[in-house]
User: Fold these one by one.
Assistant:
Number 1:
Amino acid sequence: MFAHALTPPKHVYEVAPLLCPQCGGTMRIIALIDQPEVIEKILSH
């Protein structure tokens, strides 16, 4: 994976989606889940 793929898409949304909405601290991506059955299991939990 390229570094630019992990860069927050601020230019698209005009916000920084990897900033904590509560404290403003920086969040980081720790996993990328792209398997539908895993996503469904997580969301239905």
Number 2:
Amino acid sequence: IVYNISRISNIIINGKMYVIILVIINVCIFFYKFNPSMSQYP
């Protein structure tokens, strides 16, 4: 049971978290490009 939980958690981390990180990066780039006030902060 523990092995299955760790395996599922690894799939979630490697899959969904990777997609979520890409979405967050894309949103940050979007606001960085299209919002001049955000460009003041690195």
Number 3:
Amino acid sequence: MKRILIPVVCACILIACTPSEEVENEEQRVENETEPVETLTASKEDIRFVAGWLNETAILFVDHKDDEDRLLSFDLKTGDIHTLFTSTATISEVQVHPSASQ
């Protein structure tokens, strides 16, 4: 009885500890699913700070140009830049409020 029980228990432990090949394949598929990202072409001197994410593909940043501070959005997928707010005063803080509609 012991001769049968010990190999069966050892086999169960080895099977339980063997990593599944399906998990490794899923991880490789996720790593390969990258999308091209556009690069923001702005000088480091003009950009004051990055405020955060506007949505899943766009960031908000503040730059200074022609004696004005501007709040801009940059879409990483398309490369589009949109001006959201302009002020002659210094923009020192930006708060992004999450929307339930997104």
Number 4:
Amino acid sequence: MWFLYSRGINENTSPALSRTPEEDARRKQLESITKDSDNDGLRDWEEVLWKTDPANPDTDADGTKDGDETLINRDPLLAGPTDVLQPAPTATSSPETATTKFFDSITRELAERYVTGTLSSDTSDVQESAAAYIATATLGEVDLYTIEDLRIMQNPTDKEIKQYVLDASDAIKEVFAATFQNQVLVLAFVDEDAKKRDETLWPIIYAYDDAENALKEKNVPQQYAADHLLLMNAVKKGKESIIAMRRIDIDPVLALVGMNQFAVATRQLVTAIQNTQTTLSRNGIAFSGDELATLMNNVRINQ
């Protein structure tokens, strides 16, 4: 099950997460955050919010660039010069995105460096600040499970423990498969076709959601409770991370944070696997060939 290792994974290493595609994806998306394809003063992701044409610097063809119109409170979708925008919506009706927070943070930091004379003449400051922001940002409050949410079995028999292993394995086998198809996930993340991206990501999200619900219903042997809890929360955080990655078009920084948090959740998943394997071995719990046959394909139990 999850105490099992897929091909290419061993007891002493984290899963092979296709690091090169991840790094390429991060680099590509960091570049896309500041990309302005038509040089109109609006970044491409801002064009999505304004509903302007990212390939046309003057969407309404009134002689003023889209970015300039937004700066002087004009509507870039209506020909001017009388196209005054209505008052901006309040924060409650238009919540701040992770991307706007990111730019506010970076702008303040770079301004401080400029004032103190520590701002470099190249783009290294921006790259450094962006990488640090994304590495430390989170997806916000996620209601994680606690030990009180588990159905704990006191003094379980070996038979009950083995049944728990088999049941939990069945609960997360699709998550396990999706997790280690990391390159597929990354390629979907950077796919510019939103429909194709969703066709890949939604089945994975559903797999995580099904696993989360199934794990909540399991009777958990007492000595495996802590790692079952770690597993449940890793699955939940993995799901939330992929949901955030879907928002790459309208909130690219949130999507990048989601990608980073997905890697964290995957490491926690593997930790739960390794810890459970250790406990199984220490307790002398063995599985017969017939029992192994009920587990997912191409895996083995570390006995």
